[in-house]
Description:
The chain is α+β, with helices and mostly antiparallel strands. The protein is built from five helices and five strands.
Amino acid sequence: MMGVVELKFRRDVPADRVAEAAANYVRILSQCTPDYGELMSPFDEGFRPGDMLCQKINQMVLARHPELLIYFLHIVDPADPKRENRHYAINRPNFHKESGPLTLDTEVTGKVYVVMLPYSHHMEMHLPLIDKRGRFVGVIVCGYLYDSLKEGVDCFARSFSLMDETTRLMPDTFADLFKP
């Protein structure tokens, strides 16, 4: 089982209609929901020789930290004329997707955001990506699954260690992140 869907019906709905509606929801959801393996398996096949350095950093961090569900860098490619903050080094299939408002705020202000989804036990941390000179140059997103509040707090602390680790892996020149 991958999860739970809770359906609520009025008391006056006959039991056979409830069963029929529930079966219909299951059928519809099964058509649009990927199987568990596809949904939970990160795209962490390693890196190829032509990959950008930022993707190599992503894969090194994922290899060192198997507890991570997601880990990616939101950064602005210096060669991008629009100067848009996008997902670059990522282990999910939305590579180069534009960043959202939380990420953009983290990039500019350095604020840390924590998004916890207690029903799915999923947590994401948005942390500033800091270059070796101490400048904010993007955003690191770390995602975890957790079973208890204590585990969630541990994930929170680990994310700050990952931020430090990522900073140490940063090249001296930011533009080098986009080179093989």
